[in-house]
């Protein structure tokens, strides 16, 4: 577990170690089957896999990249989505939807297991069944790593989480966690998932009111809560930017006063959350059919 956080070279060596990833997955599968998702060894295994999934798409050897993305489109850096600030261009959305998904192997080995639907379902199972905060956080964090970026792999993993494995209810439950790091990682995962236009309606319907309900107040000495608030605002921005229905959902969930309060917090410590809330408000105002409701 310590070695898996030793940087790019350490991750590379461990991914290449024959049988290591397979053994970790095998152990976790056994723990789940035996209804023992809370033991320390399972936590260690998940934390290792979490670390090995970090920057996976960038660090994959060229041979893997070619075999996974045989039809991959080349997307230049200039065309990539500029995050939640600024406007998502239609070109980026079209490329994201047009990108062919990687084909899954029925019997993955080694590094191939890291993005396979079998392991994605294992993470979702641990999120739902484990009561160990570090295991939950590592499972959420692994999915966060795998859904980062705009390539075919993150898109395929996101679609598996939301549509094929019905993972949103388990992730939504983590928004109510009393452990701040678990909640923050769950929000970061939802932020990644919400970047996919094809999944936004499902995510809004399933978790938008819950995101509003856990939107924290940015108070002195609460930097983690303010990071979470910023991340929630980014997620709500993604979900509402192209959907008047989702914007109305935010309104009926009494989200507007909370977002306004965050946007008007002028403390330097909370500028990130304030800026994110302001961008969200600007985007919400673009839905002209809701102006009268906003004014009320």
From TrEMBL:
Entries under Pfam families matching the protein: Arm
GO process annotations (BP): cell-cell adhesion; desmosome organization; heart development; intermediate filament bundle assembly; protein localization to plasma membrane
GO-annotated cellular components: adherens junction; cytoplasm; intercalated disc; nucleus; plasma membrane
Compartments in which it is found: Cell junction
Top-rank taxon, per record: Eukaryota
Alphabetic keyword roster: Cell adhesion, Cell junction, Repeat
Principal localisation: other
Residue spans of biased composition, Basic and acidic residues class: 94-107
Positions of the UniProt region annotated as Disordered: 79-109
InterPro entries: ARM-like (IPR011989), ARM-type_fold (IPR016024), Armadillo (IPR000225), Plakophilin/d_Catenin (IPR028435)
Protein name: PKP2 protein
Organism in which the protein naturally occurs: Chloropsis hardwickii
Gene that this sequence comes from: Pkp2
């Amino acid at each position: 577990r310590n070695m898996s956080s030793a940087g790019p070279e350490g991750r590379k060596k461990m991914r290449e170690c024959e049988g290591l990833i397979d053994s970790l997955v095998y152990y976790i599968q056994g723990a789940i089957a035996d209804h023992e998702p809370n033991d320390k060894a399972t936590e260690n295994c998940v934390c290792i896999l979490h670390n090995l999934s970090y920057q996976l798409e960038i660090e994959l050897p060229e041979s893997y990249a070619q075999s996974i993305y045989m039809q991959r489109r080349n997307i230049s850096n200039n065309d990539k989505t500029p995050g939640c600030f600024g406007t998502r261009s239609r070109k980026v959305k079209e490329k994201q939807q047009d990108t062919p998904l990687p084909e899954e192997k029925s019997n993955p080995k080694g590094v191939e297991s890291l993005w396979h639907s079998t392991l994605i379902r294992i993470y979702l199972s641990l999120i739902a069944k484990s009561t160990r905060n570090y295991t939950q956080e590592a499972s959420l964090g692994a999915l966060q790593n795998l859904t980062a970026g705009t390539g075919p792999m993150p898109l395929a993993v996101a679609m598996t989480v939301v549509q094929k494995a019905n993972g949103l209810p388990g992730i939504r439950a983590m928004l109510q966690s009393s452990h701040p790091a678990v909640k923050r990682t769950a929000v970061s995962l939802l932020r990644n998932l919400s970047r996919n236009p094809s999944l936004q309606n499902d995510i809004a319907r399933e978790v938008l009111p819950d995101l509003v309900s856990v939107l924290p107040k940015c108070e002195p000495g609460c930097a983690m809560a303010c990071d979470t608030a910023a991340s929630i605002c980014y997620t709500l921005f993604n979900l509402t930017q192209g959907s008047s229905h989702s914007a109305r959902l935010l309104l009926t969930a009494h989200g507007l006063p909370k977002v306004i309060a965050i946007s008007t917090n002028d403390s330097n410590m909370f500028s990130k959350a304030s800026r994110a809330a302001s961008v969200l408000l600007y985007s919400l105002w673009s839905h002209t059919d809701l102006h009268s409701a906003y004014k009320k």
